[in-house]
Amino acid sequence: MGKRKNSSKDLEKRKKAKQHQDSQLSTGLFSSNVQDSDDESANDMDNDWENEEQDYELKPRKLASSANLVEGLPIKTSEGKIERVVREVKEEPEPVEESEPVEEPEQPEETIEEEEDEDAHLSPRERLIKIKEEIADLASKLIEDPEENIACLTRLRKMSESHNIVTSQLAIMALIPVFKSLAPSYKIRPLTDTEKREKVSKEVARLRQYEQSLVSNYTQYVNNLAKMARFSYSNSANNKKITPEQLKKGSLATKAACELCSSSLRHFNYRAEIFSIVIRRLNKKPTNEDDLAVFTKSLRVLESLLKEDEENGDITFDIVKLMCKSIRDKKFRVDESVINVFLSLSLLEDYDPNHNKDDQPKKKLKKKDRVHLSKKERKARKERKEIEEEMRVAEQAITVEQREKYQAEVLKMLLMLYLEILKAGSHTLESGRNDATLLMAPVLEGLSRFGQMANFDLLGDFLEVLREIMSDIIEEHNLGSFDTDIDDESGGMYDGRQIRTILLCIATSFSLLLNHGATGKLPIAVDLSKFVSSLYLILADLANDCDLEFSHKTLRLADPIALSAVPEKPSVNVSTKAELLLRCLDFIFFRSKNGSVPRAAAFTKRLYIAALQTPEKTTLATLKFIGKLVSRYDESLKGLWNSEERINGEGTYALGIERPDREVELERCNEGAATLWENVLLDKHYCPMVREGSRSLMNNSKSSAGNR
């Protein structure tokens, strides 16, 4: 206690002495009398000089200027003196912390522009380096501790909306990996009013604020991409108000949306808007190289999304819904590659609409098999089911019933779109080609794949439309009158697109009918003789097609006489016209009841005539099919190789050359009077395998005749 009292007394004495000295110094007087009067206090100060320096050091410093001064390294002048360097620095505005999770305090848009004006004295390279450093610093803070530095996300998102194209581009690209690392692979639902009012812990409140701020910034970022993606070289060619910077931002925004779609963000909030940005680029196939690259990338992204979404189906449902609406709004003015995107659907591979669980009657348990539960047990089971349902919704899992519902909705939208395109194209074939007629081949290919799942109510509409399309093409190429006074441009050879369309109509009609016939849901008999006769009619023209075995992947030189130097890409990616022909023949004679002995004999003669003109591989495939046909109908067809015994003798065989007064008819060709004299020419074919195939068919017919 004594030490404390003494120390307090000494402290008071020192304070009084200091005050007295300060007063003397302020008046400019410092006499010896004053020093003599304070000898006792001075001696005490000398004894404790260390404490006096300590008190002096603890005093706050005051600067002459109120501005923020930063002391730099001292410099040495030419005279050898060392001078102090002090410079003034302006304070940067601190990021505003968000008080509420959803309603963020918006920073003024002029803040970034003012900072850019301050850097006007810097060179372009220095300015670029400074922008990169700032963006990298913000991104690194977000990745290190996102909850603590969530304000950096708002700052970075504001920079992406800057009018400076360099700042905007760098910020847009920097936000892609930031959102990939921050956003989860599920949707964050908004808080309800009850959840907002309830009291939660600090950690929960902090997490909620972080999630809502993340969703808000992501939403505004996607909206900004949607605004910029509207500008492209194709739709802005005649608009002089659009600047090159806006076009660059438009391409960059679409590429950024493609990157977001291909990442885990396709499961995050606001994904329908991202899909809309990508699908909007598919409205028209561009001619500009930059836009064409973006167009191709958008197609590949959508194809990959449809292929990978096999287990859930929610992504496929959103994409198909948006694409169908976009194609209808454009009145089918889209490229055929857009329709071919639907061929990548993997959701419908295991879908069987004919075995729907809802149609099957539910089995009721007998009374003796039921388990007796008390009232309390039933209540507990009900509560347990509710908890399980809430857990499933929280996990955002897709049940089997939901997946089947998505499959049914996707199939319905797809088939309705196909039917609308076919109807629009069939009504305008006579007047000329329009946008819908250019989509016939891809629609028929898609219908041949997914049409077998169609409901019986749509079967009649599809068959009627397919018959109209096929009949219009054939009537367009019928020979008109030989009167020289009439200038008739009808007739002539079919082009590759028309032959392909007819083959696809035939294959699709049989595919639709056979599916319903196999499941026993076909209440009436449908006559497809018109499709069979049409195939018989075009065989001669099909044999003269030079690209019969070629696909778009085949490497070949372009035709120098053709109008376009670029070879036309077929709508079908895998099937050539030769493969489609064999598929149609297989449908007629081996997978349906449309095959008969007269039809088999007529097609055999017609196929032998075509084999003289077709390429090597197609000729081999044709001979193999004829051998398969002979093995099924056996003795009924072997008379075609015999010129003496089995000839009917009544009339002559109608070769099938078109005449003005008579069409090529399958039933009136008098196939009984036909002889396969083409074997003599095939026996001298340049390909040894073709020669062996024709000889084996001839020897097989002779051996059977000898056995008789």
- Identify the overall geometry: elongated
Number of strands: 4
Main structural class = mainly alpha
- Measured by DSSP, the beta-strand proportion falls in under 5%
Radius of gyration: 43 Å
Low-confidence stretches: 28-38, 93-105, 480-490, 563-568
Q: How many separate helices?
A: 27
Largest sheet: 2 strands, antiparallel
Mean pLDDT across the residues is 77
Q: N-to-C terminal Cα separation, in Å?
A: 141 Å
Can you list the strand order of the major beta sheet?
Answer: 1-4
Number of domains: 4
Helical content stands at 55-70%
Structure description:
There is one protein chain. With 708 residues, this protein is mainly alpha-helical. The protein folds into four domains: 2-58, no CATH class; 120-308, no CATH class; 326-358 and 397-526, no CATH class; 539-552 and 578-708, no CATH class. The protein contains 27 helices and four strands. The chain has helices spanning 2-27, 32-37, 39-47, 49-58, 110-118, 124-144, 150-160, 165-182, 193-197, 202-228, 244-261, 271-280, 289-308, 314-329, 336-339, 375-395, 400-426, 440-450, 456-476, 496-518, 529-543, 577-589, 597-611, 616-633, 635-638, 678-682, 688-707; strands spanning 69-71, 75-76, 82-83, 86-88. Strands 1-4 form a two-stranded antiparallel ribbon. Strands 2-3 form a two-stranded antiparallel ribbon. A hairpin with a 5-residue loop joins β2 (75-76) and β3. α20 runs parallel beside α22 (577-589) and α21 runs parallel beside α23 (597-611). It is elongated and about 150 Å long.
